[in-house]
Design brief:
The longest helix is centred in the C-terminal third of the chain and has 25 residues. This protein is an alpha/beta fold. It contains ten helices and 13 strands. The protein starts with a helix and ends with a helix. The strands form two sheets. Strands 1, 5, 6, 7, 8, 9, 10, 11, 12 and 13 form a ten-stranded mixed beta sheet that branches. A three-stranded antiparallel beta sheet has the order 2-3-4, with helices on both faces. Strand 7 and strand 8 form a beta hairpin. Helix content is about 40%, strand content about 20%. Bound molecules: adenosine-5'-diphosphate and magnesium ion. Magnesium ion binds next to helix 3 and helix 6.
């Protein structure tokens, strides 16, 4: 299209300015391949510089819009290529950074494909969840100077209820105030992880006759907790949130009734709360409305706090998805302007820890005297 290069250039300059602000929410856009070869696409151009141009398939070219992200993955991008770009973020977890990766987009746009892989994370064409954990294990076994301990938790949020996917029968108390009250499992190897993910998927499916329906109507959150301790006693604690969000499409209220309407209302509410939090952060408001939904409560420390956050904006290429594609890209663009500030590693030197222990001992001694 005429004027494309000029528009990209202008976009690029603006984008570079934004990039200078360190610690923004990073946004990667991924375009699913078309499901049928004959389908008409609304995506006109994917640039190597992280730009994507979408055009209204009904109206003329003049309605085309260009969006700029950190990366855009075209329809032929492989899982390995996507992971390769995500890997530096994952690796920083081992140095004590908190990381949050979330997949946003309408149902069928490829969120689960990116996070879990096809058929919900079975051992073929793995997604980020498995590749990240595998990587963390590789790093932890290759480092002789640091001893790591890796634990995972898996929950889903369905109709504003948090459900433990690793332990559905009994309720547990993990005693951690910033995490939901759900079981935390120690993992020793990549195969432990595969087993837990399959267990989680099974639990997620068991509550519904149509698993695909349920999984697109709930948010699933896999949390990985990594504690490290080096030979001189320095410790680090970090967490990784891997979030497969419910489908972002608006369900027409006139079409949905009963359970479906209730689900739609809960999803609309939690995703619009996520949008409100992102807007408030982007505008640097003093009040950030985290407490308006379970999702934003659980992700609070990853959205505004001391974390590196990556959003995958998933889009479907088909012409009939144009409206949803545009709405996803706008949401993603807003997210990319959020400045989180520079993340800090959650590290504590051995010396400080020893002093804290001494203080604790003294406090206890005092308490027992009084
Ligand atoms: P969502 O989780 O957003 O609802 P899915 O990940 O289930 O979407 O993807 C919908 C369908 O498209 C699935 O059959 C999936 O295997 C396929 N799919 C999605 N992304 C890709 C991709 N990048 N390459 C090949 N197939 C894909
Ligand atoms: Mg899905």
């Amino acid at each position: 299209a005429l004027g494309y290069n000029q528009a990209v250039k202008e976009n690029r300059n603006l984008y570079n300015m934004l990039q200078e602000l360190r610690g923004n929410i990073r946004v990667f856009c991924r375009i699913r391949p078309p499901l049928h070869s004959e389908s008409i696409s609304s995506i006109e151009h994917v640039g190597h510089d992280g730009s994507v141009m979408v055009c209204d398939p009904v109206k003329l070219q003049s309605t085309c819009k260009i969006f700029q992200f950190n990366k855009v993955f075209g329809p032929t991008t492989t899982q390995d290529e996507v992971y390769k770009e995500t890997q530096p973020l994952i690796r920083s977890i081992m140095d004590g950074y908190n990381v949050c990766i979330f997949a946003y987009g309408q149902t069928g746009s490829g969120k689960t494909h990116t996070m879990c892989g096809p058929s919900g994370g079975l051992p073929k064409d793995f997604g980020i969840n498995y590749m990240a954990l595998n990587d963390l294990f590789n790093i932890s076994t290759s480092r002789e100077d640091v001893k790591y301990d890796i634990r995972v938790q898996m929950v889903e949020i369905y109709n504003e209820q948090v459900r433990d996917l690793l332990n559905i029968r009994t309720s547990s108390n993990n005693g951690l105030s910033n995490l939901p009250d759900a079981k935390i499992c120690q993992v020793q190897s990549p195969s432990d992880v595969i087993n837990l993910m399959q267990l989680g998927e099974k639990h997620r499916a068991s509550s519904s006759t149509a698993m695909n329906h349920r999984s697109s109507r709930s948010h699933s959150i896999l949390t990985v907790l990594v504690n490290g301790k080096d030979i001189s006693g320095n410790v680090s604690h970090s967490s990784l949130h891997l979030v497969d969000l419910a489908g972002s499409e608006r369900v027409d209220r006139s079409e949905a009734t009963g359970e479906r309407l209730k689900e739609a209302q809960h999803i609309n509410k939690s995703l619009s709360c996520l949008g409100d939090v992102i807007n408030a952060l982007a505008q640097k408001n003093s009040h950030i409305p985290y407490r308006n939904s379970k999702l934003t409560q659980l992700l609070q420390s990853s959205l505004g706090g001391n974390a590196k956050t990556l959003m995958f904006a998933h889009i479907s290429p088909e012409a009939e998805s144009y409206a949803e594609t545009l709405s996803t890209l706008k949401f993603a663009q807003r997210a990319s302007t959020v400045e989180l500030g520079t993340a800090h590693a959650n590290k504590e030197s051995g010396e400080i820890r020893d002093l804290k222990e001494q203080v604790d001992t003294l406090k206890k001694a005092l308490a027992s005297k009084g």
